[in-house]
Design goal:
EC number: 2.1.1.14
Keywords: Amino-acid biosynthesis, Metal-binding, Methionine biosynthesis, Methyltransferase, Repeat, Transferase, Zinc
Number of domains: 2
Helix content: 40-55%
Oligomer: single chain
Radius of gyration: 26 Å
Strand content: 5-15%
Number of strands: 21
Strand order of the largest sheet: 1-5-7-8-9-10-11
Pathway: Amino-acid biosynthesis; L-methionine biosynthesis via de novo pathway; L-methionine from L-homocysteine (MetE route): step 1/1
Distance between the termini: 81 Å
Bound molecules: the ligand Nc1nc2c(c(=O)[nH]1)N[C@@H](CNc1ccc(C(=O)N[C@@H](CCC(=O)N[C@@H](CCC(=O)N[C@@H](CCC(=O)O)C(=O)O)C(=O)O)C(=O)O)cc1)CN2, methionine, zinc ion
Catalytic activity: 5-methyltetrahydropteroyltri-L-glutamate + L-homocysteine = tetrahydropteroyltri-L-glutamate + L-methionine
Cofactor: Zn(2+)
CATH class of the largest domain: Alpha Beta
Shape: globular
Length: 763
Amino acid sequence: MTSEIGSTVLGYPRIGPRRELKRALEAYWAGDSGEDQLRETARSLRVQSWRELHGAGLGSVPSNTFSYYDQVLDTAVTFGAVPKRYRELGLGPLDTYFAMARGVESTPPLEMTKWFDTNYHYLVPEIGPDTEFELADRTPVERFLEARELGMTTRPVLVGPLTFLLLSKSAEGAPSSFAPLHRLDDLIEVYAELLAELHRAGAEWVQLDEPAFAADREPAELEKLRGAYHRLGELTARPRLFVPTYFGDPGEALGVLAASPVEAVGVDLVAGSTTMEVLSGLTGLRDKTLVAGLVEGRNIWRTDLDGALSKAATLLGLAGEVSIGTSCSLLHVPYDVEAEEDIDPQVKSWLAFARQKVEEVVLLDRALHEGREAVRDQLDRARAPIEDRRNAARPHDRAVRDRTSKLRPEDAERGEYGKRRADQQRALGLPPLPTTTIGSFPQTTDVRKARAQLRDGRIDEATYNTRMVDEIRRVITMQEELGLDVLVHGEPERNDMVQYFSEYMNGFVSTLNGWVQSYGSRCVRPPILFGDVSRPEPITVEWTKKAQSMTDKPVKGMLTGPVTILAWSFVRDDQPLGETANQVALAIRDEVTDLESAGIGVVQVDEPALRELLPLRSELHGQYLEWAVRSFRLATSGVTDATQIHTHLCYSEFGEVINAIVDLDADVTSLEAARSRMEVLDDLNEVGFARGVGPGVYDIHSPRVPDSAEIEKLLSAALEAVPAERLWVNPDCGLKTRGYEEVRTALENMRVATERVRGSSRS
Ligand SMILES: Nc1nc2c(c(=O)[nH]1)N[C@@H](CNc1ccc(C(=O)N[C@@H](CCC(=O)N[C@@H](CCC(=O)N[C@@H](CCC(=O)O)C(=O)O)C(=O)O)C(=O)O)cc1)CN2
Ligand code: MET
Ligand SMILES: [Zn+2]
C-alpha cells in the first residue's frame, strides 16, 4: 500500500458524454422504462468513467461521484436523514429518493438551491433534533466494490460532515435555537461506521469534501471542524483521509486541517488567491500529502503548465508529499473538447474539458516528480496553445475597447423615478395589480425538435421561423384569452436564455455537446466567452415586433442581463470580470434601445444569477456588487423615461444583495415568493425599496397547480406590505419546464384571484 495519494481529480461529470443518464432518468420517470434499465445505464456510465480515469494514469481514481440526482441528497440518504413524510409514502428506496428530489403529487420535494457560487443545484437536507442518523444505505461501499471487481482500487468521495450540516436546514418544528450543526457529534459516529466499512472493503483513501470552509465561518464552526476530524482521525481501523476545500481560500480552516490527523489536504489554488501564502506559513503539513488544485475544475481554459509547475515546485518543501489535482470536481465542465466539431480551431486549441484536464493533471504530476526532462516533449506541445492564446489578436476588438473606455457615470443613470412612473403610466395605462408572466412558456417537444431539425438541415430557416411564429401566436392568444395585462412572446426560439444570446454576439463560441448538469436531469451548454463582446445586429427585435403585431396589449421584450450572461458562461480569465461585464452590458443596452425604437414599451432584463455570483467571502462583496449593479444599469439606462424596465430574480433569500436590488433601479422587479409567503416584501421595505414589485404567487418548480383561493391569500398578504399601485402579479419564474395544461389552469387561477383582490381593494 502506497502512502501517497498521487495525481487525482476531485470528481467527474456523470450525466454521460451524450447525456445518457438524462435520457435514462426521464424515461424511468415517464414510466417508459424500468428500474433495471436505469440501473444498468448508471452502471455502465460509472464503469466507463473509472476505466477512462484509470487508463489516463491518475494516481488515485475517485468513486461514489456518480449520483442519480445529487450528491448532497445521496449523503442525506446514506446517513438516514430522510424526512418522515417521504418514508411514509411507502415507496421503494429509489422512488423514495426521487420523491425527495422531485416530489410526488401529495408531497412537494425538498428545497433546491445553488451549490456555492456555481450553477449546480443541490437538494437541501432537513435536519432536526430527532433526526435519527444511521448507516441506512451502503452505496459508497457497493460502488467501491464494483470498481474493485474490475481491478481498480478507487477512492470513495463523500460530502464532509461539516459541509453537509452547514448546507442543511432545520427541520420544521425544530426550536429556533436549533441548528443542524448541533448534531455533528451524532453524525460523526455514523461517518465513523461508514469509514470502518470502507476500510474493511479495502479502501485505502476516502475523500471528505469540505467546500463550506471557503466561505466566511465562525470560530465555533472552525472549532467543530477541528473536533470532527480529530475524532475521525483517532479511529484505529480506517482508510486514510483526504479533505479538500474548494471554490476559494480556506483561510483559517487550512491551519485547522493541517493540525488535524487527516493524511491529505486539498486546496483550490485557482480560486484561492491567498492560499499559497497561507500554505508557506504552515508547518503541520510536513507529515501530510498536499493535493495542489492547480488545474481549474470549473472553467475550460487549458492550464498554463509552466506556471502551475513553478507554483507546485515551491510547495514541495512544505508538505510531506505534493500531488497534483483539480481545483474542484470536474462536474462543472463538459466531458471532452474533442467531441466539438464546430468550434473554431484556434479557439478550440485553447480549451480543455474534463478529459483534457485529466491529462493535464497526469502530466503536471509527472513533471513535478520525474522532472521536466522526463516529459519535455509533452510540455513543449502543451505550451503552444497557451502562447498562442496569450498573443492572439482574436480576442481583441478595438471598437469595443474604445466604447468601454469612454463610458461616463451618467451612462448608468436613468431619469428621476417619479417622472418615469408618470410617463410609463400614461403610455401603458395599466390597471392596479397588473398581471404578467416571467417570459418563457412551455418548451414543447415540437419546438425542440424543430430546432434539432434546423440544425441537421432537415428543415430550412423559413420553415423553422414559421413554426416559431405559430408557437408565439399560440402563446399570445392564450394570454389574451386569460386576460393578462402585460404579455410575453414565450421565448420558443431560445434553446436557453444565455446560450441563445451568446450565439448572436461576437466574442463567444458555443458547443454542440458541452452539457453540464444544472439540476437532476436538466443540463445547460454554457457558452464560451473568449473575446471582446459586441452585438452586430438586433437579436430579439423581429420576434418581439411579430408578437406585438398580434395584440393590442403591451408585449414585454425579454433579455438576459450581463451578470447572468457571465455567470452562466465559461468566461475569459485574462481580464477582470467587471471589464467583461461592461462589454456585455453595452451589447444588451443596444438591444434594449432597439426594442424601444421598435415600439416596445416594456423591456425585462433578467438577472437571476445576481445572487449566485456573490463572492463566498464577505470582504469581496462590495467590489462585486459595484460592477454587477453598474453593468445592469448600463444595460438599462439607454431608454426614455416612458419605457418601463423590468428585472427578474428567481430567489427569495436576498441576504447580502438586498441593497443591490434597490440600486438596480428597475421600474419593476419580479422575484420568487410563493414558497416564502411574501416575507420578502417586508425585507424589501426595510431597505426602502419603493418601485414596482411582483412577488411570485405560484411556484413553477413543481407540477402542482395552485387554486385561486390560495393565490388570493398570497395577494392579500402582499397588499399588507405593498400598496396596490406598486404590486404586480406573476408566477415565481419562467414556465419553460412545465406543460401547457397546468400552465393554463394556473394562470387562469392567478387571473381570477387578481380580479377578486382588485374588486375588494376598490370597495
Ligand atoms: N443556463 C441556464 N442556467 C439556469 C437556468 C436557465 O434557464 N439557463 N435556470 C435555472 C435552473 N436551471 C435550468 C437548467 C436547465 C434547464 C433545461 O430545461 N435544460 C434543458 C436543455 C435546454 C436546451 O438547451 N435545449 C436545446 C436542446 C434541446 C435538446 O435536448 N434537443 C435534443 C433534440 C430535441 C428533443 O428531442 O427534445 C437533442 O439535441 O438531442 C434546445 O431547445 O434547442 C434540458 O436539460 O433538457 C432548465 C433550468 C438556473 N440556471
Ligand atoms: C431562470 S430565470 C428565467 C427567466 C426567463 N425570462 C424565463 O422566463 O424563462
Ligand atoms: Zn427565474
